[in-house]
Design a protein that fits this description.
Blueprint: H1 3-10, E1 12-16, E2 20-27, E3 33-45, E4 49-57, E5 65-80, E6 88-102, H2 105-114, E7 128-129, E8 147-155, E9 158-161, E10 185-187
Antiparallel strand pairs: 1-3, 1-10, 2-3, 3-4, 4-5, 5-6, 6-7, 6-8, 8-9, 9-10
Length: 188
């Protein structure tokens, strides 16, 4: 498929098959990386726009919900990626919206300790915009939109993005762009 065919096939709603595991940059007492779990819901819209909802959980079965993260923005297509024929390098830019909703009192309490400056008190099921603002838990800096150097691959009726780096590094630089595929999303 050429780029326009890929974009046409991508339009619509996609969702995680099951809870997914990711390495984080946080470490356990024994030095191993702490895992975190999530489910994704993604929508690709005309004009290279996207909407992404992520629900984080404390357990691998997604039973203990922690937070919902909502991101809206644009995708910038950067050319072919070597991982698979038809794969594309894509930069995801959160240049429209970014919000966090605690879904668990323990997580709201944690945010009230580490993300107080300029925010209302964090409460369960109450979203707050972190768009363009400093937000230490995610490493966000005021005035700078969140962006990831990622990839997109459509294959076998599924949508793949890049697998997280096993050492927990984010996709915050071109040299950290993923080189493997992660668990796919399927059509809703």
């Amino acid at each position: 498929m050429d780029l326009n065919q890929i974009k046409g096939a991508l339009v619509g709603d996609w969702a995680s098959i099951a809870p997914e595991i990711r390495p984080s940059s946080s470490k356990n007492a024994d030095g191993t990386l702490k895992p975190f779990y999530l489910k994704r819901s993604f929508k690709y819209l005309p004009g290279d726009r996207f909407e992404l909802q992520i629900v984080n959980s404390a357990d691998p079965h997604g039973a203990i919900l922690l937070a919902r993260i909502g991101i809206k923005g644009h995708m910038v297509w950067q050319g072919p990626h070597a991982i698979a024929p038809g794969a594309q390098k894509v930069d995801f830019m959160a240049d429209e919206a970014y919000e966090v909703t605690p879904l668990n009192q323990g997580f709201a309490d944690l945010l009230n300790q580490v993300a107080r400056g300029g925010y209302d008190k964090w409460q369960v099921n109450s979203a707050q915009s972190i768009f363009g603002r400093s937000f230490a838990p995610f490493g966000l800096v005021e005035g700078k939109n969140f962006m990831e150097f990622d990839l997109v691959y459509l294959g076998h009726g599924m949508l793949f993005w890049g697998a997280r780096n096993v050492d927990g590094r984010g996709f915050d630089k071109e040299e950290n762009r993923p080189t493997n595929l992660q668990i796919p999303l399927v059509r809703k």
